[in-house]
Amino acid sequence: MKKIITKIALLSVFLIASQILLAQGPPPPSGGGHGAGGNEVAGGGAPIGGGLEILITLGLVYGGKKLYNWKNNGQKLEE
Question: Kind and range of the H or E element at 20?
Answer without folding.
Answer: helix 2-22
